[in-house]
Amino acid sequence: MEFQSVVLDDEKNAVIILDQTKLPLKQEYLKLTTVEQLWEAVRALRVRGAPAIGIAAAFGVYIALKQYNTQSREEFYNKFKKFRDYLESARPTAVNLFWALDAMERVITEYRGDNINELKSRLLAAAKDIARKDAEVCRKIGEHGLSLIRDCRGILTHCNAGALATARYGTALAPVYLGRENGCSFHVYVDETRPLLQGARLTAFELSRAGIDFTLICDNMAASVIKSGNVDAVLVGCDRVAINGDTANKIGTLGVAILAKHYNIPFYVCAPVSSIDPDTAAGADIVIEQRAPEEVTEAWYKNKMAPEGAAVFNPAFDVTDAELISAFITEKGIVYPPFEEGLKRIIGGSL
Ligand code: MRU
C-alpha cells in the first residue's frame, strides 16, 4: 500500500492522517497538532475505522501531553483524563478508541516512580506500540481468515475494514490481501455502504490500488448478488463485540448477515481482540452513534434529495445478533460458537 491512514510526526508534534473524506478524488494528508483538531477529524470521519481511531487517539494524547509543562504527576494525570474524556466523546461505538486510551492511562498509573519526562517517553513508546501491534494483528487475522476462504472465489464485504481503517492490511480485507500474496484470486463484491459510502469511496479505492478484482454494488443489490450464487463468504469488520458475540459494525451489516444465513453462506466477523469488549454483555448494551440527517438527505447529491423537514433516522452502526455469525476471525485464532465461552478464552489469552 502506498498510503497510511495515521502516522506520528514526533518532531513536528503532529498526528498525520490521510483525510478519508477526500477519497477517492484526492489523497490529502492533514497535520493535526491539537486534541481539538484530532477530535474533529475523528468526528468527521477524516480518520475512521475502529483500529485507526484508536491509534490516532493514542498518538494525539501523547502529542498533547508532551507539550504540557508540569512537574506534578497529579496535574499530568488530570490533564490526561481531561484529554481522554474529550476524545472519547467524539465517537461512542468503536471500543478501540476507549481501549487505546486505557492502554495510555495504564502507562501513567503503573509507572508511579517515573518523573514527567520519563512518563512522556513511555507514552511515546506505548502509542507507537499500539500502531505497530495493529499491523501485526491484522496480518495474523489475514492468515487465519485465509485458512477459511482459500477455496472461495466470491467474497462480499460491507463498509471499509481495509488498510485505511487500520495500521496496515485491514481486518476484513486482510485475508484477501494475503490471499493475493499467496496466489489466490478472489473477486470482491463491495457494498457501497450508504449513507457515507465507505465501500464505494474507500474499499473500492483500496482494492483498485491493490489490483484486486472487485465489483461495486449498491447496498440494496446484495440480496440478488448473493442469491445468484456468486458469493461464497461474507467478511466484515467490527466496532465492538459484546461478550455474547453480538457485534456492532457499520449500519447495513445486520441485513447482510440475515441474507448470508438465508442463503447458507458463511458470515465471518474479522475482530482484533481489542474490539472485543469484556464489559459489554450483549448487543443491547452497545451505544449506537446517531449522526446528522444531512448525511442521508444531501451528502453526495447535487441537490437536497428529500423534502424539507423529512424525519431522518441515521444510526452509524447496527448490531448483528450472535446467532447470525459463523465465526470470529481474530489474531489469536478462529472462534466458533458458543461465542461467550470462546471470546472469554481468547481475551484471557488462550484459545
Ligand atoms: O463509521 P466508520 O467508517 O468508522 O465505520 C467503520 C466500520 O464499521 C468498520 O467496519 C469497523 O470499524 C472495522 S475497521 C477494521
Brief overview:
By secondary structure, the chain is of the alpha/beta class. It contains eleven helices and 14 strands.
Any overview of this molecule?
This protein is an alpha/beta fold and 351 residues long. The longest helix has 34 residues, at 116-149. It has eleven helices and 14 strands. Strands 6-5-4-7-10-13-14 form a seven-stranded mixed β-sheet, sandwiched between helices. Strands 11-8-9-12 form a four-stranded mixed β-sheet, with helices on one face. The protein has helices spanning 35-43, 50-66, 73-88, 95-110, 116-149, 174-181, 198-210, 222-227, 253-262, 294-297, 339-347, and strands at residues 6-9, 14-18, 29-32, 154-157, 187-191, 214-217, 233-236, 240-242, 247-250, 267-270, 276-277, 317-320, 327-330, 333-335. The chain folds into two domains: 6-135, Four Helix Bundle (Hemerythrin (Met), subunit A) (Up-down Bundle); 141-347, Translation initiation factor eif-2b, domain 2 (Rossmann fold, 3-Layer(aba) Sandwich). Bound molecules: 5-S-methyl-1-O-phosphono-5-thio-D-ribulose. 5-S-methyl-1-O-phosphono-5-thio-D-ribulose (MRU) binds next to helix 2 and strand 9.
